[in-house]
Structure formats: structure tokens, C-alpha cells
Amino acid sequence: MTVESLLKEVVLLTESEGLMKGCEILLEVDDTPLSVSIDVKQIKQVILNMVKNAMDAIEEVGEEHTGMIRIKTATENNFVQITIADNGRGMDHNTLVRLFDPFFTTKESGTGLGLSVSYRIIKNHGGTISVDSQKGEGTSFMIKLPLVF
Ligand SMILES: Nc1ncnc2c1ncn2[C@@H]1O[C@H](COP(=O)(O)OP(=O)(O)OP(=O)(O)O)[C@@H](O)[C@H]1O
Ligand SMILES: [Mg+2]
Fold it and tell me: Domain named Histidine kinase: which ranges (predicted)?
């Protein structure tokens, strides 16, 4: 499975919802295909949750805000790094420290399971998740997965 095809599928699945919510989804991927050995369903679930979280964070800023979600890839040593960056509401310290806790949510209808499950899935794949967020500015999630050659 290549990372590009997986990300393209996720964009196809989320694009129309994004447009309805006033956010554009940009995909910037390398031309060279990057192969990963993954459980496609699981990794798709991880990326989908992150894109949905990004849309929610953009929606929470307000209607007049132009939402932007950038998904890009880069390679580093034997890993591919997938970055999902949004210009949504960002997170405060209290949210940042509890982000991956099961059942932690700030949403009325959230389960708070999205990121805790994602964390486990990526860990089981020999990868890592990290996050960078500024309140009022936006959030970036970085997923690293081992490449296969
Ligand atoms: N991109 C983001 N911008 C701002 N806050 C975020 C972002 N991603 C996650 N969060 C915060 O982290 C919390 C936990 O996210 P998680 O995906 O685990 O659960 P959820 O989105 O609340 O619920 P569910 O995934 O079931 O819809 C969210 O409620 C939100 O406060
Ligand atoms: Mg979620």
C-alpha cells in the first residue's frame, strides 16, 4: 500500500463534508510512491479521525473563518511522516496534556476515543504520533510510520 493512495482516499471521503463546513482540504504528496506495510482500514481510521477533528476545530472558530486542512508527506530515514495541519481553534494546555486519554473530549457528542485508539494503532505499527498546537492559531498532527523497501 502506498501512503499517497491512502491519503487520496481519505481526501475523497472527507472533501464534500469539508466544503459544507467551509474548509478546504489540500493534499501535498511526494511524486515517488512511498510503501508502507499497514492495516489499511486501521490507518485510514486514524487519518479520518484527524481530518474530522480538524474540521470540528475549524467549525468552532466560526462561520466567517476560511478553514484549511493541509495533508502532506515527507520522508525521514526509514520513516514517512504524514502531517495533518489545520487553522482551527487550536488547543489550550489542559486539552494538550489529556488529548490521548480515553474518553477525553471537549465535544458534546464526542466519544473521546478517536485519538486514544489512534495512538494505539500507530504504536502497534511501530510508529509515533506527535502534536503541535497554538490556541487560536491551529494544530498539526504528525504521524510517523516505518517504510518498507
Ligand atoms: N485538530 C484539533 N484541534 C483542536 N482540538 C483538537 C484537535 N484534535 C483533537 N482535539 C481535541 O482533542 C479531543 C479528543 O479528540 P478525540 O478525537 O480523541 O475525541 P473526539 O473528537 O472528542 O471524539 P470522537 O473522535 O469520538 O468524535 C477533542 O475533543 C478536542 O478537544
Ligand atoms: Mg475525534
Answer: 1-149
